[in-house]
Amino acid sequence: MNYQLDDVDKKILNYLVANTRMPFTEIAKLMDVSAGTIHVRVKKMEDAGIILGSSLNIDYGKLDYHFTAFIGVLLTKSNRTQDVLKELSAIPNVIEASVISGKYNIFCKIKAKNTEDAKRIIYQIDDIQDVMRTESMISMEEYLSDKNRLIDAIIK
Length: 156
Description:
CATH superfamily of the largest domain: Lrp/AsnC effector binding domain/regulation of amino acid metabolism (RAM) domain
Strand content: 15-25%
Structural class: alpha+beta
CATH topology of the largest domain: Alpha-Beta Plaits
Helix content: 25-40%
Number of strands: 4
Number of domains: 2
Oligomer: single chain
Largest sheet: 4 strands, antiparallel
Distance between the termini: 23 Å
Shape: elongated
């Protein structure tokens, strides 16, 4: 479905990006339209695949997961990528995984409680069949993590 966003859609997205839990009735009041209008517009954007759902931002540090690392995964054969991705998705500490070009086949982001916990997770990744080797990079500080930055620029 080829759906073109108009100004009303962009305003709705703007409110939802700022607060995914904002009730449609509140958005409707702010925009001076009916709640039904908001519901129909959001449904159309969902059907078009523009809105894929809603999510929460979790502060893992407050849950004692202070250690972040990025893991480059080199495979024995690139045709095993999908199988390795399935295995990675079974490890809850792997919070992101991307198929990439370049030095590695897959690049992951992990969250751990500490270095000992991270070592356990990395060994778990190393033990996946067809993983030739991994390379770990420790995050010293997360400066920017905002998945909504681009949509803010698009809808304004």
